[in-house]
Amino acid sequence: MTIELVNTDGRIWSSTHSGFVFHAFRRTEDGKPVALCRKNVRPRSFTTMYEEWSTAEFADGTHGGRCERCVAKLAEVAEVAEVAETSTPAGEDEPLPQAVQNAAPGDFVVLPDADTTGRVIVWRDREHAGVINDEGANMTRGRYAAWSPRAERRDGVVGFFATVDEAAAAIKALWPPRPARTTPTCRTRSHRPSWRVVVRRANYSAFNGGRRTPSPYSLLRCGDCGGAWRTKAAYVAETPDAT
Ligand SMILES: [Zn+2]
Ligand SMILES: [Zn+2]
Question: How far is the CA of 227 from the centre of ligand 2 (A)?
Fold first, then answer.
């Protein structure tokens, strides 16, 4: 089967919604663009909507650069001119790194990039929070260049750092703090005198516009540990209201 690239004048590169690396794109049988390296990698919709495919030169001029696997695939395509459909990975979504999948919402994961040597990716909520490029030991300004879509500078540069850790910390600082974990139920018996009923046998759900709705459950708070929980247990009747 012939590989049909999305463009024939060399403008076949695009970044994706979650990453800064530029991939080369071909068309599937139904005309959808997919990356040469992985079938589940799709171009930014901006690219497809406005036919804004990029040249290799442009891609190389960005912090994301070009995907090394796509570059290799493209060389194969040029060499063979025909590449069997089976030479691309079996079409299954390539899973995100395990640590990224396992991360709790809002947690950061810092991992070397599987596509590019010398690059580290900072992940958050299964997306790229930033990229760190090792520009070499002779960079006096700091060899690790950090880039993030949240950088104040329009070109996305966060800064240049002496270590990966410092670069990662600078990227993390650009993102809002992790959503507060729900406060736990107080399980300390000796705190019981400090328990108060905040909302007795009702709730204020966002689903009904925040109005008070009767409920068998009450919201309690512990004055000692700050725990908060909803319960319909019998002890609610003897627990005083919060003042
Ligand atoms: Zn690629
Ligand atoms: Zn407590």
Answer: 6
Dist. CA 50 → ligand 1 center (Å): 21
Asked if the structure places residue 80 within a domain, the reply is yes
* Range of the structural domain that residue 164 is part of: 98-172
Residues 232 and 208 in one domain: yes
Distance (angstroms) between ligand 2 centre and the Cα of 203 equals 21
Looking at residue 185, the DSSP 8-state letter turns out to be: P
| Residue 144, in any domain of the structure | yes
196 beta partners: 221
Per-residue pLDDT of 57-79, as tens digits, reads 888 888 888 999 999 988 887 76
Mean pLDDT (the chain) is 82
Ligand showing the shortest atom-to-Cα distance for residue 184: 2
Q: What does the pLDDT read at residue 182?
A: 59
Report how far ligand 2's centroid is from the alpha carbon of 108 (Å).
Answer: 30
Residues with CB under 5 A from ligand 2 (ion): 186, 188, 191, 222, 224-225, 227
Q: How many independent structural domains does the chain possess?
A: 3
Q: Each residue of 86-95: pLDDT tens digit?
A: 344 444 445 6
**Last residue in a domain, options 56, 87, 118:** 87
End position of a domain, from candidates 172, 197, 222 = 172
DSSP 66-99: B-HHHHHHHHHHHHHSB--GGGS--SPPPPPPHH
Instruction: Please tell me whether residues 209 and 166 are part of one structural domain.
Output: no
Pairing of strands 33-35, 23-27: antiparallel
Residues with CB under 5 A from ligand 1 (ion): 23, 35, 37, 67, 69-70
* Residue 28 lies inside a defined structural domain of this protein: yes
Q: Of 204 and 35, which is predicted with more confidence?
A: 35
Identity of residue 84:
A
Cα–Cα distance, 102 to 125 (Å, whole number): 10
